[in-house]
Amino acid sequence: MRYITKYIKADMMKITEISEYKKFMDCKPEWENLLSRSRADNVFLTHDWIAGCIKHFYAGDRLLILNVFDGADLAGIAPLVIKKSGYFGLPVRTVSFIGTSISDRMDFILDGDKKEIIKVIFDHLESIREEWDLIDLQELAGYTGNLEYIESYVKEKRFVNIAGPVKKSFFINFDKDKDFFVRKFSKKLEERLKKINNKGISLNLEFQRYTSGDINAEEIFSKAQNIEDNSWKGKNESGIFSKDGTRNFHREILDKFSRNKWIDFSILTLDKKPIAYIYNYLYGGRSYNYSVAFDKNHSIISAGTMLMLWALKDSGSKGISEFDFARGEDSWKTKLTQNFREHNRVRIFKDEAYSKVLYILQSRIMPCFKNIKILHSMWMKIKDILKWE
Asked: What are phi and psi for residue 87, nearest 5 degrees?
């Protein structure tokens, strides 16, 4: 076990480092308390979600959970991990948020002097620089204000870094006018159903939504997996239930979150057969959209679209404050709303030869490859053959 305490300022801030899963599990009350006070409070930073990520995706990786204390009070948590992987075919040790690629929101959990807390965190990372090659922080939401202090620190220290790309995360805020949204999406759904009826297609459709603590998690899991198996995601093996790792993770999350009353699962059935699902998390009055799938055999009736319109209409009348479409700039989202938040990515490289090579590859060579289609195509094939990340 590695458990380190460093005092940054006398009688002021100190930092503790947790690298053991059991020690992390013991910190749940303090974690949840700080999260509830933080601007970064969201379902993907809850202790249960992070615990699931560690258990299913980081076996053998170096946990680097940093707790920052202002006096006796917990003021900041950096949920980090050092993961060994490939970077343009080269072996690297990357500091990243726990949940990268699995979570739609990641950040530092802070309540207090953000500038000073972030300085303490990055000073600590600098002190263990021999353990990592680069820092890669993704899905940083602009609204928390944390990104501003990270950029300030990086600029002050003159670290070589790459900012971006900036991504959009779309949402609908129902609090502004619930009745308006209920009418809007009711009308769109009625128009969609009318078009189908005009084609002479007779449908026995039923819309259902599960949001209470009485959810049968295993039943929902089974229905979602069956729908996804018959979807384009299932065919391409790109769905969340297509691989053992993500399938086992979501089986556990469904069970945990259903007991917390955090599951928001909508399903569309045709003649009693499930043909589309929307898999969301309900947390803090906000519904986070995580996955959508529909049976490709029923694409002619736009099963996924109809279910989404119904879920949005239903959200407006259910007391849900916001429907968060999470990451991804899919065109269907822009047809439903123009409101979005920005999320950023920051990659920080050490002032050492190997890290400089990684920086040059990322900032100069790869942009050239992408502009030359033949070279880029060859590179992607080589990566696929050698299983490089």
From this structure: -135, 100
Chain centroid to CA 179: 30
* Shared-domain flag, residues 217 and 138: no
End of a domain among 321, 340, 359?
340
pTM for the model: 0.89
Tokens of 246: 């993500």
Beta pairing, strands 167-173 & 205-210: unpaired
Query: What is the C-alpha separation between 104 and 327, in angstroms, rounded?
Result: 6
Tell me the per-residue pLDDT of 340-377, one tens digit each, with 9 for 90 and over. Answer: 999 999 999 988 888 888 888 877 666 665 556 665 56
Task: Give residue 379's identity as a one-letter amino acid code.
Answer: W
Q: What is the CATH number of the domain that holds 57?
A: 3.40.630.30
Answer with the one of 158, 191, 226 that is the final residue of a domain.
Answer: 158
Give 108-143 pLDDT, tens digit per residue.
999 999 999 999 999 999 999 999 999 999 999 999
List the structure tokens of 74. Answer: 């917990």
**Residue 37: CA count within 13 A, CB half-sphere:** 14
Number of H helices, E strands in the chain: 14, 15
Rounded Cα distance between 303 and 101, Å, is 27
Tokens of 222: 């089974």
DSSP codes joined into one string, 312-356: HHHHHTTT--EEEEEE---HHHHTT---EEEEEEEEEE-SSHHHH
The number of distinct structural domains making up the chain is 2
Q: In whole angstroms, what is the distance from residue 389 CA to residue 386 CA?
A: 9
At residue 284, the 3 state secondary structure works out as coil
Distance CA 117, CA 10 (A): 14
Residue 1: its pLDDT value, please? 38
Domain span including residue 295: 170-340
3-state secondary structure of 389: coil
Backbone φ and ψ for 12, nearest 5 degrees, come out as -125, -90
**Other residues' Cβ atoms within 10 Å of the Cβ of residue 212:** 9
Query: Are residue 188 and residue 149 in the same domain, yes or no?
Result: no
Percent over 90 (pLDDT), the chain: 62
* Mean pLDDT over each residue of the chain, to the nearest integer: 88
178 and 310 together in one domain: yes
Tokens of 15: 């930092």
